[in-house]
Amino acid sequence: MALKATVFKVQLQIADMDRNYYQDHSLTLAQHPSENDERMMVRLLAFVINASTSLSFTKGLSADADQAELWDCDLTGNINLWVEFGQPDEKWLRKACGRARQVHLFCYGGRSVPVWWKNIEPALQRYQNLQVTDIPEEAVKAMAGLVNRNMQLQCNVSEGQIWLSDANQSVLIEPILLKAAK
Predict the structure, then answer these.
(1) Angle between the 112-124 and 90-99 helix axes, to the nearest 10 degrees?
(2) SS3 of residue 119 by DSSP
(3) Which of its termini does the chain have fewer beta carbons within 10 Å around, N or C?
(4) pLDDT in tens, 66-108
């Protein structure tokens, strides 16, 4: 029998001084059985960094391979933003870059990221609409400490630093830009 996703409810207050974006979001995150807390929180962080009223989570890991896990589509179905996670191969990123106006990849995984990046960077330089960001391992682990079935989180973004907090603790996240979109 197939395992079912675990559902997390998130009340998220975002104050992004870098983008002048101030909004509250009520989110439902479905954690696939194969997904750990760290990856789920990286998905939530990606939502924070790209937050808009039209940004949405899809069915996730179990979804159709033609969908991102997080994306921003306009009313005509055009994909404005496709968000990817982990350390995918160049073929997968080429597909995303061909379908969306902008693609944002969030890497995580500690020491494996520099090795992966060294091997794939030359191939990715040709994709003008691709941005690659590394989330440091310490921050990913600290964010996993905030996981709760019903989360109430505040997020402050200023000068590239992100503070993610609940009632008991705060986590500082300083994403590292590996490649900017042009």
Answers:
(1) 50
(2) helix
(3) N
(4) 788 899 999 998 999 999 999 999 999 999 999 999 999 999 9
- Amino acid at site 130: L
Expressed in angstroms, the distance from the first to the final Cα of the chain is 46
Q: What sign for the dihedral angle of Cα 131, 5, 2, 62?
A: negative
Best CA proximity match to 83, nearest among 93, 74, 91, 75: 93
Count of alpha carbons within 13 angstroms of residue 113, beta-carbon side: 18
Instruction: Count CB neighbours of 61 within 10 A.
Output: 15
In 3D space, the residue among 68, 157, 142 whose CA is nearest the CA of residue 108 turns out to be 142
Largest CA distance in the chain: 48
Question: 59: closest CA among 102, 89, 30?
Answer: 30
Are 86 and 93 a contacting pair, CB within 8 Å? no
**Alpha-carbon distance 61 to 41, whole Å?**
14
Show the tokens assigned to 15.
């104050």
pLDDT in tens, 154-165: 999 999 999 999
Rounded CA-CA distance 133/104 in Å is 8
